[in-house]
Design brief:
By secondary structure, the protein is α/β, with parallel strands linked by helices. It has one domain: Rossmann fold (3-Layer(aba) Sandwich). The protein has nine helices and five strands, in the order βαβαβααααααβαβ. The chain has a five-stranded parallel β-sheet, sandwiched between helices. It is globular. GO terms for molecular function: ATP binding; tyrosine-tRNA ligase activity. Its EC number is 6.1.1.1. Belongs to the class-I aminoacyl-tRNA synthetase family.
Length: 212
């Protein structure tokens, strides 16, 4: 049956890079199989920063830089899917168009206290502390800020919102996203009593082993 599958993209640069390759290939494959694919550009969560795979905290990005990067990612994603359909898709039936959304669409207008009260109560510090991304930072000299520590809660809420609006039951992410995807799975299952699933891709890394 037709499913909805999403993948998140952080607007930390103004274009896609080789590290996005496997996730995009998987999104295209799912689209070819008749599923709906959603690209979520994390323009709101970019102000927080994902600690996954990082030993130091990112500098906070200016809003105008985030907006520029969002526009670049949107253009790239639209071009990739458009060219794939024009030049590589030879079937008779139409592909379901790629849906691109920004997570500011559901965070703008949110008030901090009601959000923490409604969402934060479903997260346990003990389990959040066990995430690899958190442990790596705690064991480094850098430590981890509350902002980055809370990132997994926001990514989990993204999934809940997409589940409620689009019945999105699958999330694609790199191997470093296991902790965030696991948090999202638990959050959706706890609040909606429905199973959702993560699909992990291997990380494409530089020769040094660092992710792009």
């Amino acid at each position: 049956s037709k499913q909805c599958i999403y993948c998140g993209f952080d607007p930390t640069a103004d274009s896609l890079h080789v590290g996005n390759l496997l996730a995009i290939v998987l999104m295209l494959r799912m689209q070819r199989m008749g599923h709906e694919v959603v690209a979520v550009i994390g323009d709101c969560t970019a102000q927080i920063g994902d600690p996954s795979g990082r030993l130091t905290e990112r500098d906070q990005m200016e809003q105008k830089i985030i907006e520029k990067n969002v526009a670049g990612l949107r253009d790239n994603l639209e071009a990739v899917f458009k060219h794939h359909e024009q030049h590589f898709w030879k079937r008779e039936h139409q592909l379901i168009p790629l849906r691109i959304v920004k997570n500011s669409e559901w965070y703008n207008g949110q008030s901090v206290v009601p959000f923490i009260g409604a969402v934060g109560r479903h997260f346990r510090l003990g389990k959040m502390m066990t995430r690899t991304s958190v442990q790596q930072r705690l064991n480094s000299g850098e430590g981890i800020s509350f902002a980055e520590f809370s990132y997994q809660m926001f990514q989990s809420f993204d999934w809940l919102y997409l589940y409620d609006k689009y019945n999105c039951r699958f999330q694609i992410g790199g191997g470093d996203q296991l902790g965030n995807i696991d948090s999202g799975h638990d959050f959706v299952k706890r609040t909606r009593t429905k199973d959702v699933y993560g699909i992990l891709t291997p990380l494409v890394t530089a020769e040094t082993g660092d992710k792009y």
